[in-house]
């Protein structure tokens, strides 16, 4: 072999070694990436489990270790699980439209909602909560305190499990109805069918229709007004300067009334007349403040519909934040109300129709809702805001405002409504109105141009996904009966365990 051949072959060994090392490193990197992909879905459940464990430890430290205290600790764990599920499912109705309209990013929406939910629960959450879901089951018929405790725990477990299942299937459901169903099922198992106030239950069943229809009609009417007065006039910018401040004033007045009636009862008592005057004053102030703001924002905007969206972005963000505050103030009781009832019954030894909520119980609900939103909320936020129908700031603004208006109207009329059903019904109302309006304009343009759009083509232009409508409606209908059946089963198992 010549020297030349040796020089040519000498580097071959090191090059092959580096090549082998690169392949080995590449395999290690691939394994690490695969492990990261597998472990990432476990992060959220792991953090949720950690929260539940921390709640158990904190409750044990506050109450002390004893036989009766362990029941309170168990109830605190279940309430923490319930709060996580409320955050994952219910809060999406407030933030979904703003995210779907691109007025907020997902991260910003989660942060704003978490802050406002926590503030609403801690600042304006109720001092007192009814123990058995607004009198659906009378406490007098459940005279034994231990039976009452098992009833409340069964209702809480069943409601939390149902909301968890609904979240997995991407269906926004009413947490209030879930708790009611749980109480009814456990109450029937404890004392028979006569224990339930079926008149109130029929009102709840009626709300399955009343809530979404009211929300949808009001949202559609608002969108029709915006289209008629702003979007489809010749000088859109001038119309926006005239009417957008009015709409912001309406928003300010409506939300001031809404919060006074629903979210500020803990701070000071407010009757309907006082709430209306508060709303009127705030509405006038909002209108006056919005006029120069909208005039400034509209400078240089092109005279087209797309330009109008920027004027509704800030009002939409504010309305979403206010809805989250009101939700935290009102719906935290769904998570901690049964826990407060258990704490009172175990410590006092009697059953009361209304009980005070201890501060530590309210903190569990507030933090649980916020954490559940941060960990599991994006799925439902995306579905509500983007997958039912396409939203922009104007349409999402109509949905948010209709939610507050509908609750106020229903409260004055004494109608049982669900905030979840109202918000989702508002989205469907906006979508179906868009379909009707687009169909109407297509027919008019077709007649003007001598062209008629075939029926098959019109069907392909539907702007609302019917599959989501069927899924959501089915989830609403089965919420109470499913929670009731599940709660009855849980109560039966618990009562058998207690007897043994």
TrEMBL record:
Q: Which UniProt keywords apply?
A: Membrane, Phosphate transport, Transmembrane, Transmembrane helix, Transport
Q: In terms of domain of life, where is this protein from?
A: Bacteria
Q: Does the keyword Transmembrane helix apply?
A: yes
Could you tell me the membrane topology recorded for this protein? Multi-pass membrane protein
Q: Which InterPro entries match?
A: Phos_transporter (IPR001204)
Asked if the keyword Zinc-finger belongs to this entry, the reply reads no
Can you say what this protein is called? Phosphate transporter
């Amino acid at each position: 072999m010549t020297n030349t051949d040796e020089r040519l072959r000498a580097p071959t060994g090191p090059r092959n070694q580096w090549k082998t090392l690169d392949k080995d490193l590449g395999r290690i990197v691939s394994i690490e990436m695969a492990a990261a992909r597998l472990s990432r879905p476990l992060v959220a459940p792991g953090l949720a489990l950690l929260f539940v464990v921390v709640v158990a430890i904190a409750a044990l430290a506050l109450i002390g270790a004893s036989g009766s205290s362990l029941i309170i600790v168990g109830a605190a764990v279940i309430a923490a699980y319930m709060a996580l599920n409320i955050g994952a499912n219910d809060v999406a109705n407030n933030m979904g439209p703003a995210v779907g309209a691109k007025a907020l990013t997902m991260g910003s929406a989660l942060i704003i909602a978490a802050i406002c939910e926590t503030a609403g629960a801690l600042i304006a959450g109720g001092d007192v909560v009814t123990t058995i879901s607004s009198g659906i089951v009378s406490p007098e018929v459940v005279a034994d305190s231990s039976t009452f405790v098992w009833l409340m725990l069964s209702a809480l477990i069943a409601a939390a499990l149902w909301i968890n299942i609904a979240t997995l299937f991407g269906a926004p459901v009413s947490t209030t109805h879930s708790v009611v169903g749980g109480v009814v099922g456990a109450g029937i198992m404890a004392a028979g069918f006569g224990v339930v106030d079926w008149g109130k239950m029929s009102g709840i069943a009626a709300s399955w229709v009343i809530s979404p229809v009211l929300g949808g009609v009001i949202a559609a009417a608002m969108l029709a007004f915006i289209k008629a007065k702003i979007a489809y006039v010749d000088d859109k910018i001038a119309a926006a300067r005239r009417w957008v401040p009015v709409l912001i004033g309406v928003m300010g007045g409506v939300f001031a009334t809404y919060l006074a009636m629903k979210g500020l009862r803990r701070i000071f008592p407010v009757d309907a007349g006082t709430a209306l005057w508060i709303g009127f004053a705030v509405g006038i102030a909002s209108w006056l403040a919005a006029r120069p703001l909208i005039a400034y924002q509209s400078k240089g905007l092109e005279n087209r519909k797309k330009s109008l969206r920027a004027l509704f972005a800030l009002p939409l963000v504010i309305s979403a934040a206010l809805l989250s505050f009101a939700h935290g103030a009102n719906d935290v009781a769904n998570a901690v109300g049964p826990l407060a009832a258990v704490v009172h019954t175990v410590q006092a030894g009697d059953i009361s129709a209304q009980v005070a909520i201890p501060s530590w119980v309210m903190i569990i609900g507030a933090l649980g809702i916020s954490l559940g939103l941060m960990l599991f909320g994006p799925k439902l936020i995306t579905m509500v805001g983007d997958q039912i129908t396409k939203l922009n700031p104007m349409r999402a603004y109509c949905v948010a405002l209709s939610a507050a208006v509908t609750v106020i109207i229903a409260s004055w009329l004494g109608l049982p409504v669900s905030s979840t059903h109202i918000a989702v019904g508002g989205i469907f109302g906006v979508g179906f109105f868009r379909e009707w309006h687009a169909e109407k304009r297509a027919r008019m343009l077709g007649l003007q141009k001598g062209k008629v759009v075939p029926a098959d083509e019109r069907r392909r232009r539907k702007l609302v996904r019917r599959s989501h409508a069927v899924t959501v409606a089915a989830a609403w209908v089965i919420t109470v009966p499913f929670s009731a059946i599940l709660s009855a089963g849980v109560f039966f198992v618990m009562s058998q365990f207690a007897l043994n």
